[in-house]
Amino acid sequence: MRNAPTESATRETVWNAPGMPALLLMTATGFSGFAVLLPTGPLWAVRGGADAAGAGSVNAVLMLCTVLAQTLVPTAIRRVGWRTTLVCGMVLLGVPSLLHLLTTQLGVVLALAAVRGLGFGVLTVCGAGAVAELVEPARRGQAIGAYGLAIAGPQFILVSTAPWAAQNLGFGVVFAIGALPLLGVVPALRLARRLDGRPAGAGSAPDRDAVPDRRAVYLPLLRPMLLLLGVTTAGGALITFAPQMSGDSTATMAGLLLLTGTAALSRWRFGALADRYGTEPFRWPLVIVTAAGLALTAWAVATPGATAPVPLLAGMALVGVSYGGLQNLTLVDAFAAVDSRSSGVASAVWNIGFDGGTGVGALLVGYLATGASFSLAFLATAVLCLATLPLAFAGRCDAAPRRSAG
After folding, report:
1. Phi and psi at residue 334, in whole multiples of 5°?
2. Contacts for 396 with CB less than 8 Å, ≥ 6 apart
3. How many other β-carbons are positioned within 10 Å of the β-carbon of residue 10?
4. Radius of gyration of the CA atoms of the chain, in A
5. pLDDT (tens digit, 9 = 90+) per residue, 244-284?
6. pLDDT tens string 185-226
7. How far, in whole angstroms, is CA 137 from its chain's centroid?
8. What is the distance between the alpha carbons of residues 335 and 110, in angstroms, rounded to a whole number?
9. Which of 74, 234, 283, 328 could form a disulfide with 344 if both were Cys (CB 3.0 to 4.6 A apart)?
């Protein structure tokens, strides 16, 4: 009996730490609704007569409104609490999916994307911020890996299969799955009960007295945010346009499976590596991997209607590795760059980089593909990613390596 507390502590992992199961379930349902519409929202617009630029605008608007919401979430949590903020976010993310059935008109699709973006902004900032609140820094990389797997798992299943489901089972099935965030309200309430009333931390905006110089908070976050923006520009472009850039539907589905599957595995496993070795040894190789993957993808789709499957699959797999790995590493860097009072701001800034990149990728590739070709668009995106390489080398934005158990 005397050893019971020690045995209980030994059994606790980042997966079953108090509050983490509710966070992971809420995240999985929320990102399921988000992921299933990421490739099919633009397809729905194309069905209504939109061109590639119009289709790209759907996810661009989604991410623009996501970023706008993310700038307000830390203040919203401080003023109205986790409970109200989380419930509003899940409802805003889930309800618009069902309303797509009313029309394919581009203006309405864009409006629904805007509302979903507001909800997604709440989910992303709250989710990442809750990780910092629930798990101590020594295990934060592993916790971010678990959180990332709850994100990437639904994306692995739904991003790749959603276009097939829309074309073979009907868009109604897709839009029903898109409403899954409404089921996430229940774990959101459980999570909020644990987080509401806690001292200022993961979800709180820093007050003026605690952080008199706001530049001291935001400037260290700029490097990981811009580094993340580069790789999510690549990932967002591939996810948005994979069904349209390839003339081989089988290769398209396989490519999306590879992209999302390698991203899920990479985001999970890089957490333990970051806890043990820090993030610096891994950042710059992953930037180069991103550019190489995009170059292979550009080669694969250089001839319209005649997709080369091998370079397509290799390119999307490479982008998936860097897409998942840099998500984890830059979030670890962001939390390491601030004190615990400002981790809510770190979460918001990191998510702005993530979703801003996804929107830039959709918009940039959409317009370049409309005016030239998808091949040229992906080469331009590769150059943009390489421009972030100095940020991967510059200085140390990660905490010192921590030897952790497991």
Report:
1. -65, -45
2. 278, 280
3. 10
4. 20
5. 887 777 888 889 889 988 988 898 888 778 878 888 889 99
6. 999 999 999 988 665 443 444 443 444 456 777 888 889 999
7. 21
8. 33
9. 74
